[in-house]
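Box 3.1 — From sequence to structure: Succinate dehydrogenase subunit 3-1, mitochondrial
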Amino acid sequence: MNKSIFEYHEYNCPLSPHLFIYKPQLTSIFSISYRIFGAFLATIVFFFYLLCLKKMFDLLYL
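Predicted structure (token representation):
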């Protein structure tokens, strides 16, 4: 009765429901896309900030 997870996996029993059995919902697609776009936008803003800092130090210490 004390079988490990690996022994259950040998019988091709899924340990949890697979992601592809769920129909993607519009709200979840928007949520994921907003997170990806937000991370991309934050990266652009961060590099622009670093570029501005570099330009500022170049102007101050010429």
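Summary of the box: The first helix runs from residue 5 to 10.
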